[in-house]
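Allow me, if you will, to draw on your knowledge of protein folds for a short while. A protein sequence and the structure tokens that stand for its backbone fold form the material at issue. I would ask you to consider whether the tokens describe a fold that such a sequence might reasonably adopt. Thank you for your consideration; the sequence and its tokens are set out here:
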Amino acid sequence: ILTEVELFGSFLFEFPFYTIIRTLSRLLEFNILTLEKYNEYLNDIFLENPDNDLLLDLQWCSSDIKTSIGTILTYSEMVEINYDLFGKMLFSELKLFYFKNQMDIQTFALKVRSIWWLLPNSIGQKEPFHAMSYLDEPLSWGDEKQTRELYEKMFEFYEINDTN
């Protein structure tokens, strides 16, 4: 289980704020992100967008997790999230994390699957996101090499299929 928001890293403020808020709410809902860390991110995003009604509402209910999540989910259903941008950044960060940390493949697979579980069903069932749910299957028969090859191909999805 993820204990930090490692996937946001350096590109936190490159996302449209509603994409960030939606993802942070999912991390908060599954206790992967602490309320303190969520409020820290929320404050930073609010300072960048002080006239936004959603962010103002979230500031008012920031100590009430259920109300915050409900507000975010209601709002995000009305807003189109750019999943090509999200995918490019997510897979770019996953690739950097994968090669930089040299962690064992089972730990990495758990992190990727945890992220996949946080995606809305409408996007989690589309490639390349859906691949995040099954690329670790070769580990069940001990094939670490094939699993690594599959993840490395997943990282290249947006490089090969440039969506601009």
Remarks:
- Residues 1-15 have pLDDT under 50 and may be disordered.
- The CA atoms of residues 34 and 94 lie 21 Å apart.
- The chain is about 60% helix and 0% strand.
